Amino acid sequence: MFSLRNCGLWVAASLTKKRVTLARFSGDSAAPLATKFDVIVIGGGHAGTEAAAAAARCGSRTLLLTHRVDTIGQMSCNPSFGGIGKGHLMREVDALDGLCSRICDQSGVHYKVLNRRKGPAVWGLRAQIDRKLYKQNMQKEILNTPLLTVQEGAVEDLILTEPEPEYTGKCRVSGVVLADGSTVHAESVVLTTGTFLRGVIIIGLEMHPAGRLGDQPSVGLAHTLEKLGFVVGRLKTGTPPRIAKESINFSILNKQTPDNPSIPFSFISETVWIKPEDQLPCYLTHTNPKVDEIVLENLHLNSHIKETTRGPRYCPSIESKVLRFPNRLHQVWLEPEGMDSDLIYPQGLSVTLPAELQEKMITCIKGLEKAKMIQPGYGVQYDYLDPRQITPSLETHLVQRLFFAGQINGTTGYEEAAAQGVIAGINASLRVKRKPPFVISRTEGYIGVLIDDLTTLGTNEPYRMFTSRAEFRLSLRPDNADSRLTFRGYEEVGCVSQQRYERASWMKSSLEEGISVLKSIEFSSSKWKKLIPEASISIGKSLPLRALDVLKYEEVDMKLLATAVPAPLKKYITCRELAERLKIEATTNKGSSARRSSPTAKRLRLFDSQRCVFVL
């Protein structure tokens, strides 16, 4: 039996442990231990790491301040990245040479593309990630980034000076004050405090000050921001308990296997680090009326659920689901936490009941009858700042050169945090150089949708990205994020490496050439049917069809097409990504064969809008 009292004592003890308040770990061995930098980033989570790396890539001498270096890149909640909408953000972060996609390709244990039955515009790249491996790889990347220095320390206050007259704002940030009283100066400061601003952990009726289990909250900084006049709100979130793998009966559960082949997140990854046959499966189970009964009978023992603070609507706790959707079964995904981890993460079972009741509830679920709980689930309540107080560059209106990114802006999720982090880091560096801000519009990317929603509409609940939020989602696909953003990042900002730029340039020219070749190959529908009998091509009307139109059919891919017409097309199947992107371009191409072979189409003089000619 897991003791709540012991849990509370453990949390309290962990928060009183003496921390190293000042230690430096330089990513640039030649860098002096300076007290002035171009950019300071506060927080080593998913927003902070992306912001710090982006600022350094832009050429700014950058300092990353974090409570503990050993928690950089820590996945505080679910052991996964990506999903529908979220996978789009990861591709866009990667297109700007961000870190998380490459690190996921080196750390995943189960890769899968969601929504495959629908069009490519709403496919969702997703992966289960090895927590330990991700953290190791992220720390290795951060600690070896040129121009980036990492320092342990808690930030208690901001150093403020007179504002620049040509910009709006009541004052200007020029550095930070650490808990030990020392100061570090900078031209720009990026704040990525996550759930640490006056964070409180809740299990049952017990509450403990913490940003996450075992880490201290940031209280002094919260008071500073409030005194400056920022509008502060309160949000809550939660995490499920962790279960011992050997105590679960997987044999009676629905097994989910990874994709074969696995699709990497990063445009510069040819493949992921692990073969599909070596990846770990996930399992699906469901709640039942017994779970509902335990929740409803013990609401008086759950202070988190009684709070009026808004929680995540799209990732609710099991208590919220039982109250909102009574008498229903709810999915619980059993996800591995790593290759050599003995823990299982029950996705969909976020709970803040007392620990002994959590254990009782778990054992009511199919496959978990003998499950052993290793760590209880808990809720977190924290301060966030109304995102309408920041500009599209993520600089605040009130304080010049101060940028916010991540959960401090009211978002939830690793991917949303990373997306804000890379933009804040880029713009913090540009601000130092007195260059115009780098802004992505709603027409250019999901990052633009995310930031525009936040800065114009604000939020009163943890904001999560969905494809339905993007009006231009048909053109903002995961596969073309590089063509949308990489060239801008290279030419306007300088945050993209030469290697990535050359790769994107090659892909762009190869796609243009491939599409041109596919448009130039044209046979009658009856001839195509003979060449590719697998395709459901109608031969009732012997209309001319281009290879690009044939590629649109679900049964046809570039490999099959190249077998039918090898001479001009064979070279386009040597690169997996190029072949897949040509297929997607054909699928989304406006001049499709569906229109040509439609019963309502006219037999003669069909206008081909792609070539601007009449086809008889």
Strand content: 15-25%
In the CATH scheme, the class of the domain at 242-378 would be Mainly Beta
Shape: globular
Query: What structural class is derived from the secondary structure elements?
Result: alpha+beta
Mean pLDDT, as a whole number?
89
Helical residue percent?
25-40%
For the structure shown, list the relevant keywords.
disordered C terminus, FAD, disordered N terminus, Elongation Factor Tu (Ef-tu), domain 3, nine-stranded mixed sheet, flavoprotein, MnmG, six-stranded antiparallel sheet, alpha+beta
Characterization of the model:
InterPro entries: FAD/NAD-bd_sf, GIDA_C_N, MnmG, MnmG-rel, MnmG-rel_CS, MnmG_N. This is Protein MTO1 homolog, mitochondrial isoform X2. One of its GO terms (biological process) is tRNA wobble uridine modification. The protein is an alpha+beta fold and 616 residues long. Helix content is 32%, strand content 21%. Among the domains are: 242-378, Beta Barrel (Elongation Factor Tu (Ef-tu), domain 3), CATH 2.40.30.260; 498-591, Arc Repressor Mutant, subunit A, CATH 1.10.10.1800. The strands form six sheets. Strands 1, 2, 3, 7, 8, 9, 10, 21 and 22 form a nine-stranded mixed β-sheet that branches. It has a six-stranded antiparallel β-sheet with strand order 15-16-17-18-14-19, with helices on one face. It has a four-stranded antiparallel β-sheet with strand order 12-11-20-13. The longest helix has 23 residues, at 498-520. The protein is globular and about 75 Å long.
